[in-house]
Amino acid sequence: MTLCAVPKPPTTDAAASMRRGACPSLAAPMLTGDGLLVRLRPLDSSLTLAQFCAIAEAANRFGNGILEITARGNLQVRGLTASTVPGLAEAIGAAEIAVPDGLAIETPPLAGFAPEEIADPRPLAAALREAIAARRALLTLAPKLTIIVDGEGRFHLGDTVADLRLQAFRCGEDFRWTLCLAGTAATAKPVSSLRTGAVVPVVIRILEALSTIGPAARGRDLDIEAVRALCSPDGEDIGVAPAPAPMVSAVGVHHLASGSTVLGLGLAYAQIDAASLAAFLRQAGELGAREIRLSPGHGFFLLGLEGEAAAIVQRLALSHGLRIAADDPRNHIATCAGSTGCASAWMDTKAMARLWVETVPDLLDGSLTLHLSGCLKGCARPKASALTLVGAPSGYALVVNGAAKDGANAYTDENGMKSALERLAGLLRQNKDAGESARSCLTRLGAARVSAAFEQG
Asked: Is the torsion defined by CA of 62, 65, 66, 72 positive or negative?
């Protein structure tokens, strides 16, 4: 397995890093509206508190002081320049942070001790990394190709899209891995059931097939019957993994079967001031926190807290602007970097998110996700949302039950935005029945009525 802590100098080909499908890394930062961006995938999403603090301090020293956690649980450092990226790389190396290069292989954030976990996925993920690294010269794979190895349990990765998905399920007193193609646990196509020892050779054969198709090939490009043939004779027709349990909000205090406590926290709108994060981490460390696990949904878990310390750290987190509770309305807003961090964006998505929270709080009850997109690309949430607001040169476009790239249902300009939201708030207040969710109410009212309220002058 190759672990890259101090990478090669960054490429100067900014255009290459901006190609759709490119993955920004220390070796190839991506040019954005506020400078260069670097994305980091720490091994098994795990960092000591000192390492996380070192990244925050490096983001403040070498970037613009903004640190992000993506929807998949990766770290992003913003506002870098060609001259400061090497300094960031040196800081990461000095902190002994292992950042695997190559194909992304993801495991759940609490892998190894999650409640109701069927199998610890980390040994299998490590075996896959080692086998793939040994064949790297022979494989040409898409930059964003992803494998998920999910041992199940609480905080699984069932809602995360992957090209190849390995999901554990019980088989008598033993367990197997269901191999699926292209999608979430609900949408991916099941291919075969595999014993642990059969997984690595089967996955290597599939990756070789993808490499043969071409450097942009993804899991969706594979023929399912051809993949089943690649699984033979290692695969077994003994059933597939059942649907995972519904997702549990990672934000909050969680008590594990071992008696230990895990504190789940979220970044507000995916970003935090690096200096504020470093100060918080130092406070949490003084109260016993020792490790963090990055989590999908723009958050992280704090491990090592006991008893009242978890409640104290939770209150400290709130004072630093972090999300601490499952009922925080900010949990239900997906935002991209916006115009303050991306040259393509026409909207300050963070300021817009605050306006929605202040003006339409009843909408953010957890029944739907509001997507605020700076442009038509919809980077923060490519799939459809109940409501999507898209920035445009002339104002804002509202998409009802669609994605950012879909046709808009209504428009307003900068001057009319607050009034449009006030009308939406009024529409909900007047029509939402007792106990009815915001999603149910909007569905009952229909897209035409929602759009009319938004656009009415």
From this structure: positive
Helix (H, G, I), strand (E, B) or coil at 193: strand
Burial code (b: 16+ CB inside 10 Å, e: under 16) for 153-185 equals bbbbbbebbbbbbbbbbebeeebbbbbbbbbbb
What sign does the CA torsion over 199, 201, 205, 208 have? positive
**166: region left, alpha or beta (phi > 0 left; psi from -120 to 50 alpha):** beta
**Is 70 exceeded by the pLDDT of residue 309?**
yes
Q: What whole-number distance in Å separates Cα of residue 238 and Cα of residue 436?
A: 42
Q: What burial class does residue 266 get, using C-beta atoms within 10 Å of its C-beta: 0-12 exposed, 13-18 middle, 19+ buried?
A: buried
Cα 208 to Cα 102, 114, 306, distances in angstroms: 15, 33, 47
Distance in Å from the first CA to the final CA of the chain: 61
Lowest mean pLDDT among 19-23, 287-291, 401-405: 19-23
* Distance, CA of 181 to CA of 395 (rounded, Å): 39
The CA distances from residue 63 to 17, 35, 340, in Å, are: 18, 9, 14
Cα–Cα distance between 377 and 292 in angstroms, integer?
A: 31
Q: Is the pLDDT of residue 318 over 70?
A: yes
- How would you classify the pairing of strands 410-412 and 395-402? antiparallel
* Best CA proximity match to 32, nearest among 341, 414, 345: 341
Structure tokens that stand for 193 in this block: 């059931």
Rounded Cα distance, 391 and 380, in Å: 13
The answer, as to whether pTM is greater than 0.90, is no
